[in-house]
Amino acid sequence: MNPVKFYLLTDTHYFEESLGAEGKAFEDYMQKEQYFMKESSAIVKSVFNRVAEDTETDIVIIPGDLSKNGELESHKSFIKELYKLRESGKKIFVITAGHDYGDAFAFKNDQWIDVEGTDFNALTDMYKDFGHGDALAFDEPTHSYMAQITENVRMLAICCDSENQPKGAMDERLMAWAKEQLDKAKADNCSVFAICHYPIIPPVPVFDLIGDTKVKEWRKVASFLADNGVELVLTGHMHIQSINEYYSENGNRLIDVCTACLVGSPAKYRKITVDENSVLNVETIDVGDFGGVPDGVDAQEYFDNQFRNSIVTRVTRALDGGKGIVKHLKKFGKKFVLTGKVGTLGRILFIRLDKSLKNMKIKDLIGEVGLAIFMGDMPYVEGTPIHNALNKVLKRFSFILKKVEPKLQKCDVKIDLKDMLLNTVGNNKGYSDNNAEFKLK
Is-above-0.90 flag for pTM? Predict the structure, then answer.
């Protein structure tokens, strides 16, 4: 691949604070949110200011979910910030995604309120100065485009989260359009990388089983890109730090660099370089302090605490409701998650645990493991107490896993749930999800 250098940040979820972000309903809503809503504009402005100061890197790429939930005023304010960033000498390329159009809401007077949303087709005009307005080719139904990034490098912007096709899909029509653009790039002796809001490769193994965590028929899409000269794709959507490789049946490789949400834990963005020797370097940068962190609180911990609370809240709220015996079981389960200890769970399952885990609260374990997965470089590899504990639990329930696996299988690839789960909490890829180097073709 020809030399290129740029900043990659995604899932900015910019919210215009004047619309309303206060009151009891807002506070209740934020209990389950991984990322910050009220502070999002301050975070985006802070990062944009730092990016603007780098005079050696003049390209910025943002692959989707630009606004919180498609609020028209959020888009207007975000676009103003894009123009300010452009004034610093940056060339900016964006795509939109599901959070950028449709119904929108805010919070005032302890209530949810409706605010003006954005029509999908209106996004074309709104963001024409940031990518597709000067594109070599534009696919109007989806807002996908092919852009000239540098003299010999092009970017295929795949928008698979539009009103005009199944959500998260790259259908045959869009694939045919992309093939035409990739053929032209090859004829013009230009190398191509791609961006897509949805991950092409599941960020962690267990996400292969969850529908909205990657593009539909991801192996087909990954092979299509790899076999047509695309070796690098930049994605978002899942708010996770991950880097994954996939090889097509023809032996061609695709590298998917999925980047976290900018305005919530893990709160990272990337600086990506491909040098003259076709060495890809991925560097991760912390969002850090944005001026809204309470005194005496570390900025990363501020982000991470929101994540921990949100994942525990989601688990416990899933245990609400029900009738009869189900309601009582859920109530007991919720109390056990909130107050129980890992050692107690071990005794119930007749599993010997490392002493470092016995007094740990279950809710703290859930928060820490969830956070570690989304941070990337999952630390719970073989030999660590948490890996060993999970391995023992999975062995205890192996007879159930074996019955479930055939029902989850959707293609010819055999499912091994135990392996999937262990490799989700422990990184065994041999390279980092945050800072890594690859030799490209």
Answer: yes
